[in-house]
């Protein structure tokens, strides 16, 4: 085994030179030297940590949608309008925007464990605040509880790529990132499915309050259990790194890294900024569809609150399958550019088909088209994270994914408000066409990334013939 002290930081420049010449960085003997191999090891604990993080993300995502999927019921219960209900979802987006920079700083300076523990605590506290709000006069308090839960989201969305890079091997890093994202998607799926079952649309307000209270207490109990597991299970990083890229990154002294400089480098990275905007357009559309799904379904299929939730579940379950397949595909092929473009284009096609078949009067058609839409639109989420890491290495994974998510939250607010107003004035079809236009723009922008260089060694290391 070669000591880390023997390793030269010139490897980054050598790799870049070799790649730009279209040659294997090991084969190009005139331009580079043989890279020293550092000790690596995979720990079984990585899977337990990934499971606990996924459960934490799932709990938070469930609470994001527990109002909007039965928006008509909560509008009657709290005597509020549709925009107020929409803000119970959009507060997640709005909170993220000002808090993401300080949380990214915490992630880089305090570490992943501290960020995950604090975020899980916020999630737990917000859930318990909401247990006292099953009363028609307590809308302000339930909004405050939702705000506290939304703070936890800022501590979640940048973790999957960081956790995958720090703990998983090069042949499983994309799959691990996909599983981390799947936790969030599972929470969204449960958020679509469970609230319409736990809170039926009954006329008696006391009975309705009882059902709402049960849902809130279940949420709080699960969040508490997960917080305890996070405190017990989560660790910062393994003693021995899992990959050569991580082993080499550990050689960088703290003095060589500046958080502010890293942000500025990312903002000046044109391929990454293209990805930031295109990612925001795609995920912002997904957020708008998720938030307004109940209104879209009820408009064409009155009284179908439970099926609206099931359609949302179909979107997310199909997306979870898509995410997992995309993660496995990336681990095997490393075709980040081509896969991202293909999935983006198919998301656009899926949205078009969903938009023009929603009003046909057949729920089974909606289930089918929503599943296709979810497979590609939700499947895009881990692709964006991993593609960002490939474009920005050796910058922090938490910083790149944080900027991606910030873009998604901004577009999520814009699209949700705009589509809601378009639906109110011109109907669901016009609102969905509005989203399709922006998906088309995002597809074109993603196509421009095909000529962008990848910088993480693991993205091409499989092609090195030693």
Fold and architecture overview:
By secondary structure, the protein is an all-alpha fold. It has one domain: MFS general substrate transporter like domains (Growth Hormone, Chain: A, Up-down Bundle). The chain is 73% helix and 0% strand. It is built from 18 helices and no strands. The radius of gyration is 23 Å and the shape is globular. The two termini are 17 Å apart. The N terminus and C terminus are likely disordered. It is a multi-pass membrane protein. One of its GO terms (biological process) is heme biosynthetic process. Keywords: Cell membrane, Endoplasmic reticulum, Erythrocyte maturation, Glycoprotein, Membrane, Mitochondrion, Phosphoprotein, Receptor, Transmembrane, Transmembrane helix, Transport. One of its GO terms (molecular function) is heme transmembrane transporter activity. This is Choline/ethanolamine transporter FLVCR1.
Outline the fold blueprint:
Layout lengths: L10 H10 L24 H21 L5 H8 L3 H28 L2 H19 L8 H16 L4 H9 L5 H26 L6 H29 L10 H6 L9 H9 L2 H31 L4 H29 L2 H22 L5 H15 L2 H13 L4 H30 L1 H20 L19
* CA(first)-CA(last) distance: 17 Å
Top CATH class? Mainly Alpha
Compressed to H and E, one letter per element, the order equals HHHHHHHHHHHHHHHHHH
What is the CATH third-level topology name?
A: Growth Hormone, Chain: A
Q: Can you tell me the CATH superfamily?
A: MFS general substrate transporter like domains
Morphology call: globular
Count of beta strands: 0
Number of H/I helices: 18
How big a fraction of the residues is strand? under 5%
Let me know the largest β-sheet: none
Instruction: Write down the Rg.
Output: 23 Å
* Number of domains as seen in the coordinates: 1
Low-confidence stretches: 1-34, 459-466
Family: Belongs to the major facilitator superfamily. Feline leukemia virus subgroup C receptor (TC 2.A.1.28.1) family.
Organism: Dicentrarchus labrax (European seabass)
Subcellular location: Cell membrane; Endoplasmic reticulum membrane; Mitochondrion membrane
GO molecular function, one term: heme binding
